[in-house]
Input
Amino acid sequence: MQTLNTLLHCPSVLLGIFQGAPGCIPWGIINTYLNDYLSSDRGLSVEGATLVITVFGVGNFVGTFFGGIGCSYLYGHGPRYPAILSSCAAIAGCFPLWGLVNFNFDSNMNEDNNGSDSKDPKNYVVLGLISIL
Output
């Protein structure tokens, strides 16, 4: 209990807690409700929406892993560079997610030009990959 008390009196620890906790809320909402949104409101099948979310999650892991490696490398060149990489990646990640949320699934996923059914998994994997760019 004394260790917790000591930590909570350290300004940098408090700053990390108060900055980090609200920043996690949007990612929790995305991972929780994007599947339902894509299947209920955007017309994807439940299986397709789940596949998009799965690829999105794999992309989050890969991005976190390689982002950590990149930030470690950049930190060797200067302590400001990891923050620049992280902020640029966070800003750039908004655009593919916006595209995924606003993609018109009804007109683009029902039939392709040959008249065959295009609701196969590769289309959903591509959508998931777009969302993790």
Summary: The helical segments are 2-8, 11-41, 46-75, 81-92, 94-102, 105-109, 121-132.
